[in-house]
Write a structure and sequence with these properties.
Elements lengths: L4 H11 L4 H8 L3 H8 L7 H11 L3 H4 L5 H17 L5 H17 L4 H15 L12 H18 L3 H17 L3 H8 L10 H12 L2 H32 L3 H19 L15 H11 L3 H21 L4 E3 L18 E3 H12 L11 H11 L4
Antiparallel strand pairs: 1-2
């Protein structure tokens, strides 16, 4: 049976990670219209074909099923297969995913969907600060290939988000490789203001439309991303103070951050963004307290970092826990529909790795630390 235009639109939309509402807003129609197309109850007006093709970064022939539909379908299968093999905490599975994507690019060397996914994963594998996901033995080859991919995306994509993501990847890679002039050139391509975003501008559109419910949803999403950036910048700012010998300034930065997050999320803190492998402000806070000789304060921070996940492990008996479903009741941030799973055995593994972090080893003889270690090693089904 021939593939319909509605089926093609649906696959292209999902391949771009767009909801029906987001696609509708980008081309100036209602989401009901998109739904009708995808369910084959109608077709786009001829005037909407070019805008649709532009959003998906394909030729109009693709929408009519004349050309490259097979490539798109194959690319989607390749990306899906790469995602399916990844297991959090297991580097070899992420390298397997990377291999699937690079093999896909050998067959479809100019496919932007595969290339974007390969580039993003390449950066994660190539950066030493990324903890367990850093592929030290393959980093050099991955870096050179990822730089090539990023430059290709910048030159050939029509999607501003993809282009900015590619430029950000270049900032990371050039900086890590001490090519600071090139990193600076890329960094200067970014806007200064943090509200130059899709969600902020779509909120403005919906405000003038009088659709205040959707305006609120967009603004909550924008704040959600802003809070992720807030945590990342806090971790980096505190580390900058620490590396400058300004330990009390580092402590104040982290304490202010947690005060803000607790005000927003209350008992749901340290989620939504607290991470095992990077940006762990609790361990950075403990490290800063140790630098000024306040062992008990450092131990307080370590306990807060670990006990949240211990309680999570004991409370939820399902093997896979959806962290995003656990938050949030805050009116500032909407609960996302995108799941973020973590397995219970991974929680235990990562907590043990956390307690072995070099930054907090001066605490290893502390009685509270010893008791905390026993609690984590005793976690079981």
């Amino acid at each position: 049976m021939a593939t319909t235009m509605g089926q093609i639109i649906k696959r292209l939309r999902k391949g771009r990670g767009l909801t029906q509402e987001e696609l509708a807003q980008r081309i100036g129609v209602t989401y009901q219209a998109v739904s009708k197309w995808e369910n084959d109850y109608g077709m786009p007006d001829i005037s909407q074909i070019v805008p649709l093709a532009s959003v998906f970064d394909v030729s109009t022939d693709v929408l009519f099923g004349i050309d490259r539909t097979t490539e798109f379908e194959e690319a989607l299968k390749i990306v899906s297969a790469a995602d399916a093999v990844k297991e959090y905490g297991k580097l070899e599975t992420y390298l397997n995913a990377y291999n699937i994507l690079t093999d896909g690019l050998k067959k479809y060397p100019n496919n932007l969907m595969i290339m974007n996914n390969c580039m993003s994963l390449g950066v994660a594998l190539a950066m030493p600060e990324n903890g367990w996901i850093y592929a030290k033995n393959r980093a050099d080859s991955i870096i050179s290939e990822t730089i090539r991919q990023a430059n290709f995306i910048i030159a050939n994509s029509k999607n501003i988000t993809d282009i900015l993501r590619a430029r950000q990847c270049l900032v990371f890679l050039y900086s890590a490789n001490k090519k600071f002039d090139l990193a600076t050139v890329e960094a200067r391509n970014f806007p200064v203001r943090t509200d130059f975003t899709l969600y902020s501008n779509m909120a403005r559109v919906n405000e003038y439309m009088g659709d205040y419910a959707r305006e609120a949803t967009y603004l909550c999403s924008d704040i959600d991303y802003s809070l992720q950036a807030f945590e990342d910048n806090t971790a980096r700012l505190g580390a900058a103070y620490y590396n400058s010998g300004k330990y009390t300034d580092a402590i104040e930065v982290y304490e202010i951050f947690f005060a803000v997050m607790h005000a927003i999320f209350k008992d749901e803190c340290p989620p939504p963004y607290h991470d095992f492998d990077s940006g762990d402000c609790y361990l950075l806070l403990a490290k800063s307290y140790l630098a000024i000789g306040k062992e008990n304060k450092a131990m307080d921070a370590v306990e807060k970092s670990v006990l949240y996940y211990v309680n999570l492990f004991n409370k939820h008996k399902n093997d896979r826990i959806d962290l995003r479903k656990l938050m949030t009741n805050s009116p500032l941030v909407c609960k996302t529909e995108v799941p973020s799973y973590i397995c219970r055995d991974t929680i235990k593994q990562k907590l043990l790795e956390k307690l072995k972090d070099k930054a907090i080893q001066p605490l290893c003889k502390n009685e509270r630390f010893t008791e905390l270690y026993k609690i984590v090693t005793g976690l079981s089904d």
